[in-house]
Amino acid sequence: MTVDTQSEVDEVAERMELVPLELAGLDEADLLAMFPTPVQAAGALVWARATNANAPRALNEYRKKLRKAQRDKKIAVGRAVKELRAELPRATLTELRELAYGADDRVIAALDAEDDAWLAYEYAKDYAAAIKEDIEILRSINANFRGEHR
Question: Rounded CA gap, 120 and 122, in Å?
Answer without folding.
Answer: 6
